[in-house]
Recover the amino acids of this structure.
């Protein structure tokens, strides 16, 4: 088992957003979580990655976790390469290893020509590619993606799914949270987060 | 603590700072403009004044212009450093949080910020120190620089604390402008201080010890070792507060259990 989420509860004021959410993910699984705006999808992800503390319940991760937040979370005055370098230090990836991984991600998502460009000068779509690439740099075996293809054009959307399928074949478990799923067949399982419970 | 993470953080913070034109303008232009205005407008009349940390019978005779130039050098050093520290700690907080999720320890990020701040303090003090010495004969230049660095340290750590405590940028700037204006820009002026009532209040404000240290070094042969010591103590108190608040805000609240 790669991810085990047990009886997660979370309340904000009088509003109980999560009422005992439980699920587990094994190797090579691709799950989706959908729900209306404000249904608690992002809350659930923030609890899984450890950013927020649940009121009750437990999260177990077996392996390395990669997290791509919904909002592009980048330094506007650093270049694409500098972001890879900074996050490689955070993940503890060897200095000799990360440049080739970064190069591979730049090629896979087709934004190599921007590698010396500061984020402030990138388009929204390219920023989103970098946002996603940073979550993949350390080759995680659990990938948590919050609305990952917001702002992607069709080509990048297809590249994203190609990459996701490749990762999956290598054993990675992928959890995609989105407000809209158009291609249900891509997922092994789709949960609907409704009134604090996964259905 | 990983030296690689700290040095990478430091390099990225310095790059982020110096790629913003407003920072360069603030650092290079503001001191020279303000000191030039003081030089052009302050009266040259000589007056006797006392310094609070020296004996009550010690009078220093200097021109109002020289006093104003040294005093404003101290004020600018404190104010600029404080603003930069606020900027360092508040800017792109969400990305810093992401770095923590990805493996940085909050203290590693804070140490990177602190090292960047120390470099800035030294650069600002040296730049303003040389500018002032161009207008005013400074008696002990190196010790005067130390005084400017100490105001930078105290006010820089104040900026870090405010930036850690307050989320809003505007509110943070307001807190810094208010204190820098009242304390470093007004109450610590030797001309005001000498005649002030209840000057015990002034002695407990953050700029008191560093400004005493700088003015003593600029105009006298007396020792300012106590003022320097208490400046470090004062700055360290702000630093500890900043460390605790920043750590509490940035730490991972519930790191998942790792089964493997």
């Amino acid at each position: 088992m790669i991810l085990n989420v047990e009886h997660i509860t979370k309340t904000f004021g009088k509003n109980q957003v999560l009422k005992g959410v439980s699920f587990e993910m094994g190797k090579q699984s691709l799950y989706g979580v959908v729900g209306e705006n404000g249904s608690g999808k992002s809350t659930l992800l923030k609890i899984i990655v450890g950013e927020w503390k649940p009121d009750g319940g437990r999260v177990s991760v077996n392996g390395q976790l990669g997290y791509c937040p919904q909002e592009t979370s980048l330094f506007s005055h650093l270049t694409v390469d500098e972001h890879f370098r900074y996050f490689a230090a955070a993940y503890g990836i060897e200095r000799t290893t990360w440049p080739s991984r970064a190069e591979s991600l730049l090629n896979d998502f087709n934004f190599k020509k921007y590698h010396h460009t500061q984020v402030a000068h990138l388009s929204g779509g390219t920023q989103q590619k970098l946002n996603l690439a940073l979550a993949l740099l350390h080759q995680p075996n659990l990938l948590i993606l919050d609305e990952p293809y917001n702002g992607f054009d069709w080509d990048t959307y297809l590249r994203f799914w190609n990459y996701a399928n490749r990762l999956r074949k290598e054993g990675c478990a992928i959890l995609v949270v989105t407000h809209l799923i158009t291609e249900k067949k891509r997922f092994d399982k789709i949960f609907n987060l409704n009134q604090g419970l996964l259905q | 603590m990983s030296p690689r993470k700290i040095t990478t953080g430091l390099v990225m913070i310095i790059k982020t700072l110096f790629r913003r034109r407003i920072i360069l303008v603030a650092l290079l232009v503001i001191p020279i403009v303000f000191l030039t205005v003081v030089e052009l407008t302050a009266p040259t009349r000589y007056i006797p004044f006392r310094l609070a940390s020296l004996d009550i019978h010690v009078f220093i005779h200097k021109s109002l212009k020289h006093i104003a130039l040294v005093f404003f050098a101290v004020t600018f050093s404190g104010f600029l450093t404080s603003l930069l520290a606020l900027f360092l700690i508040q800017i792109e907080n969400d990305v810093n949080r992401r770095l923590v999720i990805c493996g940085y320890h909050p203290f590693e990020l804070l140490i990177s910020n602190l090292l960047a701040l120390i470099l800035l303090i030294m650069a600002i003090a040296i730049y303003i120190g040389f500018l002032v010495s161009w207008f005013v004969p400074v008696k002990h230049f190196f010790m005067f620089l130390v005084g400017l660095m100490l105001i930078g340290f105290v006010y820089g750590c104040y900026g870090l604390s405010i930036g850690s405590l307050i989320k809003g940028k505007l509110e943070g700037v307001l807190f810094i402008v208010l204190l820098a204006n009242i304390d470093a820009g007004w109450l610590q002026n030797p001309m005001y201080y000498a005649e002030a009532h209840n000057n015990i209040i002034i002695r407990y404000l953050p700029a008191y010890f560093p400004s005493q240290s700088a003015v003593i070094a600029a105009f006298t042969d007396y020792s300012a070792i106590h003022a320097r010591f208490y400046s470090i103590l004062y700055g360290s108190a702000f630093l500890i507060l900043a460390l605790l608040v920043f750590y509490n805000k940035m730490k991972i609240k519930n790191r998942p259990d790792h089964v493997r």
Summary: The helical segments of chain A are 41-49, 80-91, 98-108, 124-136, 154-169. The first strand of chain A starts at residue 3 and ends at 12.
